[in-house]
Design a protein that fits this description.
By secondary structure, the chain is an alpha/beta fold. The protein contains 13 helices and 16 strands. Strands 3-2-1-4-5-7-6-8-9 form a nine-stranded mixed β-sheet. A seven-stranded mixed β-sheet has the order 11-12-10-13-16-15-14. Helix 1 packs across helix 2, helix 1 crosses helix 4 and helix 2 packs across helix 4.
């Protein structure tokens, strides 16, 4: 079932009747097997569009629980929820705005950042060109008890309809998808375009959310780039400028929920040395922020190659900063040799990683011929200087898994 939120269906969802039906439908299983019966039950009281709207919202609320603490009472649009910031990330970012008084949230979407900014900065102007998303943000602020600290404006982020002097700082989340819904990696294709946004508000303290794959060296306007990961997965990068950046820091990696931070102001004294019996893969935020050497210096590890984002050392302890592996075997990067080793050593499940080898892990994985039952191992394919290696490894801190 496909559903597109419209002004009509949103008015229904916001009505007393719509809220009541959402509450009653919250306990429906809505599984593939139960869906026909669930739809039939809803259609006794609702039109086809209303029933579809209720089902969509119940499913989105369940999915939204991964990002929002009040998801069971909020309203969502599917595409906006996919792009919304998880609350731990939004809260971490909002902390920089403490004391600024009045902040503008440009491209507020359904209000994920607004909810945290309103608790930190106090007064927030929520701006979005899409009227449906703005209505969602208004509703979501209300159900979270934050409507008194928020004002809403349907406007182009580059043409604010209120006096600029009221705003003391800005947060902007330009759209990074095309009209067809495809993700764009070019800052010129952001909406609004990134460089126009930075130029328009160059005099104000500002944070701009960008894709973590952006070439940060091409953005000289940003005094500080922060790459944030949550639970080991990179979620976003933010360009900080003026009073929101940290003096002396150009690049920062932040790990949530641990609240750990690493910057380029720290020592990068991390020598090159040969591979030991242990190899370490830094968190993606460290890699994207270009801070592998700083992490190596902090953890007492060494680099294997200036172009390789892996570290090594005589021993590696478990740490939130990445994943350590004990190397059980070093093989030449030859498929037949690897497959023979898997069968001889009863390895039935293989997790493939690669760095610098120029191979796609999912493609290489399909060519493997492991044992039918046995152990689980990690296979790291990499190029160290001129050597192509295949490392069979066990994660540090994990026991053998036989089955």
């Amino acid at each position: 079932m496909t559903f597109q939120l419209t002004e009509t269906t949103l008015r229904f969802l916001l009505s007393e009747r719509g809220r009541g039906r959402l509450s009653l439908a919250a306990d429906l299983p809505l599984s593939p097997a139960s869906l026909p019966g669930d739809v039939q039950a809803l259609r006794r009281h609702l039109s086809a569009d209303e029933a579809a709207a209720v089902i969509e919202q119940v499913l989105l609320r369940r999915r939204g629980a991964q990002k929002f603490r009040q998801a069971a009472r909020m309203l969502f649009a599917r595409d906006a929820l996919e792009q919304a910031t998880p609350w731990p990330v939004a809260r971490h970012r909002a902390a920089r705005y403490a004391g600024f008084g009045c902040v503008a949230d440009l491209g507020c979407g359904l209000g994920g950042d607004l909810l945290e900014l309103a608790q930190t900065a106090g007064a927030v102007w929520a701006v979005d060109l899409n009227p449906l998303r703005l209505a969602l943000a208004r509703h979501n602020a209300a159900v979270c008890g934050l409507e008194s600290g928020a004002r809403f404006a349907q406007a182009d982020a580059l043409r604010l309809p209120f006096a600029g002097g009221r705003i003391k700082a800005l947060f902007a989340d330009p759209a990074r998808r095309t009209a067809a819904g495809r993700r764009t990696f070019s800052p010129y294709d952001y909406q609004p375009p990134l460089f126009k946004l930075l130029a328009c508000f160059s005099g104000l303290p500002m944070g701009v959310k960008v894709g973590p794959g952006l070439d940060f060296k091409a953005i000289p306007q940003a005094a500080e780039v922060e790459v944030v990961s949550l639970g080991g997965a990179v979620k976003e990068a933010v360009l900080w400028s003026n009073g929101l950046s940290t003096p002396g820091v150009r690049r920062r990696a932040t790990l949530l929920p641990h609240g750990l931070s690493l910057t380029d102001a720290e020592s990068d004294d991390c020598p090159l040395a040969p591979l030991t019996d242990f190899i370490f893969e830094p968190d993606g935020a460290v890699i994207r922020a270009g801070l592998v050497a700083q992490l190596g210096a902090r953890l007492g590890l060494h680099r294997l190659d200036e172009r390789l984002a892996y570290l090594s050392g005589p021993a590696i302890d478990p740490t939130p900063w990445g994943r350590g592996y004990h190397i059980l075997a070093r093989l030449p990067l030859r498929l037949k040799r690897i497959n023979r080793y898997l069968k001889e050593n009863h390895i039935s499940r293989v997790n493939v990683k690669q760095r610098g080898a120029g191979l796609k892990p999912e493609v290489f994985h399909r060519k493997l011929k492991p044992a039918k039952t046995g152990l689980e191992r990690t296979l790291i394919l990499l190029k160290i200087q001129d050597d192509h290696l295949a490392l069979l490894c066990e994660p540090v801190g994990e026991r053998e898994n036989i089955g």
